[in-house]
Amino acid sequence: MVGGVTLDPRRPKPAIRVERTPARLLTGSLGRRLEETRPVTLGQTLAALSHALDVSEGQHHEHAIRSAVIGLRIGRQLGLPEAQLTDLYHAHLLKDLGASANSAQLYHLFGRDDARLRRALRRMDMERLRGGGTLMLSQLVGAVKGPWRLRYLLDLGLGRFDIVASLATTHAERGARLAAEMKLGAGVSEAIGTAAERFDGSGAPQGLSGDAIPLGGRILALSQAVTQHYADGAQAGALALARRHSGTWFDPDIVDAFEQPRVSGDLVDALRHDQVWHQLTQLEPLEQPFSVEDERLDRIATVLGNVIDAKSPWTRRHTTRVRELALGMLSQVDESGDMDARRRALSRGAALHDVGTLGVSNAVLDKSGTLDVAETEVIRRHTAYGEHILSWADAYSEVVPLAAGHHERLDGRGYHGSVPANLLPFDVRLLAVADQFEALTASRPHRDPFSSNEALAILAAEAGSGIDDEALEALERFLSTPAAGPLLAPAKFDPEELVVIA
């Protein structure tokens, strides 16, 4: 398969959630109240959205929730209080918030599929990669296309550039910062930011050791390391890894807790796809349900929008601009229905509409030449992955049609559902226009940005067949207002300047 996508949109949803009404049809109300489904909590919402982070990191499906089951079992074995368990729970689900920023780093440094590089790194002994390893050198040799890559090749060979520590630092620091922006418990950012530290002080980003590493970070370090073995059905490998690195990578007390029969004894069965959600439900700390109006859902959507945009330097402001355009356009149409609910859904939907691109390789997203047929199909698949990811999250059920439908066309020739005009809600049509205008007026790997007038002319040629006339008129009216000024002249840029390698 081209592009390294790891999430199958056809995979069945977990049995623990079968009472949920599927959000497949685009004809559903965008303002549907959460109370019409079962009550949900913050943890359950983050668990659902963790699938996006799994694909961003190139992990197995349900990797984060498997890690959370292991981490919560360890936490309960250690007798942690509920508040600390809640932070631990959320940290496991959000541990890969910083992963998307590394995607551009890996592609621009090696010119290779970032998902495959991540998987190769996880299969290797990290100690053998420190100081520049043969895997990275072999990947880089065939990718050298300019003096800046040649410089990193030399630095890797001479041991002056530690690629593993660099990637871990970006992952940890960005993840911790994004978790803080969600305004979760202090222990969440703390754990995410220190999960790559090692008990003996040889980790990253700060080289902390022993008890200087927060307990949440020490638990997360072990749980995420052993989860890979359980995904492969190899409990012996997980136990061997924990024992081999007890006192070096991992806290011996946490390894001892992990080895207890009530923690690891039945994990092979407990972490199966048909069991893992049930296990998580049994272990999750007690949290109060919340409503669709909860502002935490807005913060989470905004942060995930930043995660999505960080996937590629070419999309560094895409989500922000699309949301501002879409909300500005909505202000120009006749008010109908519950406008507060429409604005809320459109704002969140704009932030999350491209969540499926987290599963697309940067070798496709950042390709400077014309995409071939297979690569085009990978790009088109991102709406199916976005719909699948968001359909797990009851709290965001109102935005599923927006993520699924923002590349549909009125004539039914869009993707991924080829949905005709009579089944496309107006706000889906509106978001489609905002998305296309932003893309046309932004730099892309194969072209410079179009001017606003050029972009409007391109869209006008599609009005009535590809895009909605009324939505286009709303865009034109909004662009004539002072509020649209900052959106009209995005600066050109050199993407290499945005990829911070060292």
Commentary on this structure:
This protein has 502 residues and is an all-alpha fold. The protein is built from 26 helices and no strands. Mean pLDDT is 84; it is low at 1-7, 9-37, 125-133 and 140-146.
Task: State which percent range the strand residues make up.
Answer: under 5%
Task: Summarize the biggest pleated sheet.
Answer: none
Q: How many helices does DSSP assign?
A: 26
Distance between the termini: 31 Å
> By helix and strand content, what is the structural category?
mainly alpha
- Overall, the morphology is globular
Q: Radius of gyration, Cα only, in angstroms?
A: 23 Å
Spans of at least 5 consecutive residues whose pLDDT stays below 50 are 1-7, 9-37, 125-133, 140-146
| Record field, number of beta strands | 0
Averaged pLDDT: 84
Helix content: 40-55%
The helix-strand sequence is HHHHHHHHHHHHHHHHHHHHHHHHHH
Secondary structure: elements and pairs:
Layout: H1 42-56, H2 63-77, H3 82-93, H4 99-110, H5 114-123, H6 134-141, H7 147-158, H8 163-181, H9 186-194, H10 215-231, H11 235-244, H12 252-259, H13 261-264, H14 267-270, H15 276-283, H16 295-309, H17 318-330, H18 339-352, H19 362-365, H20 373-380, H21 382-391, H22 400-405, H23 426-440, H24 452-460, H25 469-479, H26 495-498
Summarize the structure in short:
By secondary structure, this protein is an all-alpha fold. The chain has 26 helices and no strands.
Give structural attributes.
502 residues, mainly alpha, globular
